Structures are given as C-alpha cells and as structure tokens.
Amino acid sequence: MTTDPKVTTLLKILIGVAWIDGQIQPEEREYLHRIAEEKGLENEPELQPLLHEFRPVKAAECYSWVNEYLGNQPTSEACQQLIEAISGLIYSDGTVDTSEAKLLTDLQLLDTSHPPSESVKNSVLTAIRNIYQRWVATLNA
After folding, report:
1. Where is the signal peptide (predicted)?
2. Which of 49, 92, 137, 138 can bridge 27 by disulfide, Cβ–Cβ 3.0-4.6 Å?
C-alpha cells in the first residue's frame, strides 16, 4: 500500500506536538494510535520509532515538519486544516501547554488571510478557550 507523504508528515507533526511539552500524555498516545490506524499508517516503517516513543521529538524537528507540510507559501486553508488537526490532539488530554499554544499562534501567523495583529492572538486564545469549554462539558456530561 502506498501512503500519501503529506498524510505521513501530518502524523509526524501530531507526534511532535504530543512531545512538544516534553512528554506524551496517555490520552495523546491513544489519540495518535487511533489516527495512525484510521489513516492506515500504524505499520509505516518511518513512523514506528516515533509512534512507539522509541525516541523523543524535539520542538525544532516538529517545526521542521510543519514547514515541510505547509511549504514556502502556505494557503489559509492548509493552515486552518493543520490547526484543526493539532487542536484535536491538544484537546485529547484536556490541557494546553504554553508550547502547544505557541505553536498554534505561530500557525495563525502563517495564515496569509490574517495579517499579524492582536486579532490573531485573540483567535488563538478563543480556540484554546473553546477547547477547555468542550473538555469541561464532557466532564460534566
């Protein structure tokens, strides 16, 4: 089976985001394995050492994969899709680390449809607030 390199890179980014705070949380681990299975990547040789935590991923490596994934001139749609994918991972453990929030902010700044401004920071904070609200809602359900 031939896999789409873009999908493989996306999963590498998600693994990197899970490591960005220094360790993978159990909920993040479960989420990553579920995504790998859904995408048919659970046996992808390139992903095995990352998916099974044989080696940690440094933030610089994660950012490198983000740049590879988005290319030199990322579209607004590509940035938003990546933000949504990362938000799903971040939501999985119910906490947003400052390094995760920084990555989301950096992605918002890459979005060509939004010039850098306070509104970008506010939209990231709103997204983080929404994640927390959904998490609290699931706890109370």
Report:
1. none
2. 92
